[in-house]
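#struct-help
A.M.: can someone run this one for me? Single chain, 356 residues.
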Amino acid sequence: MSDDARKSTKGPQQSPPPEVSPTPGGLLGRLLPLEQRKNADELSDKLDLTHGDTAAKQSAFWIMLVLSGVIAAAGVIGDSTATVIGAMIIAPLGTPIMGMALGVVLGSGRVFRASGVFVVTAVLVVITIGLVFSLGLPSSTDLLANPQITSRTSPTLVDMVAAIATGFAGAVGLARRDVSDVLPGVAIAISLVPPLAVVGICLGQSEPALAMGALLLFASNVLAMVLAGTLMFAVAYASDRTAEERSKPRRSYVTIATLMVLVLIPLAGNTASTLLINTWTTRVDAAAEDWLATTPGAQVIDVTFAAQTAVIEVLIPGDVPPTSTLVDSLKGQVPSGVEVIIDVAQGSRQNAGEVA
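D.P.: on it. Structure tokens below:
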């Protein structure tokens, strides 16, 4: 029997089924459904400010950055939370930061370096804006009395956790077609431009220690978001790259992880210091309450720690009880060498009657 006859007896030959890209399942499938996921080229066009219509992209970036820096500096100096939030909403700094993450994942040194240049230049621009705004402040201005400044000059591990979550939210929002671009923009902008404005203001007021605290907050947030974005993009676009392309960014991963560890050290130290201060403050407050318990009408208004000094604000209608009693009660409760300051407000309440 001929070969053709043999083939005919076996019926029509079936061609192999076409290869279909697997649909990711589990958590990844829920975070980045295949039908809603942007491809790497689309995401690169969005995050790479040196690709495509560069003139329009870069002009929009610098205009919005300067405006957000001005708004942030004004909001910080004026202690206006609403104004600072406005600066967060329009701040475009998240775009090149996530561009750095995409450059790492794609193994593109050009994208990573170009995005990094935009980030560094933007940092200098916003700090300069804050410095200019600080020139209008009196030299006697107490920066620690402004909560917009104090909340950004003492970062802790909690800030790092928030930044990592923000980075994941931004990466998911950027990678999906069905999530508005406003969402990742607002999420990524948090704690980026305002800390830089604080750096400039503190430098202008000759407070380098406070400026370094705000710069540490910014740096930790940038590294956290780059790390989160890199992890998310690496998982999302793993199937779009060859094994050789996936192996290229390993050195970048090590560098980012090393920088994260270096930033975590001062954050951990500051977190421990904050917890200790909170513990000491609670103990001093309790000791002060016991100290005034036998004085009618006396009460503790506030207790604060500054360096090695505990300041106790009290309201006492009459004479102040012996302070040695209070100091003795704090032995073993706070570190030795802590100076206790009693800020006394003399006064009493009196009913003046009702207005007819």
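A.M.: thanks! The chain has two domains: 26-248, 277-346.
D.P.: also worth noting: Confidence is low (pLDDT under 50) at residues 5-12, 15-24.
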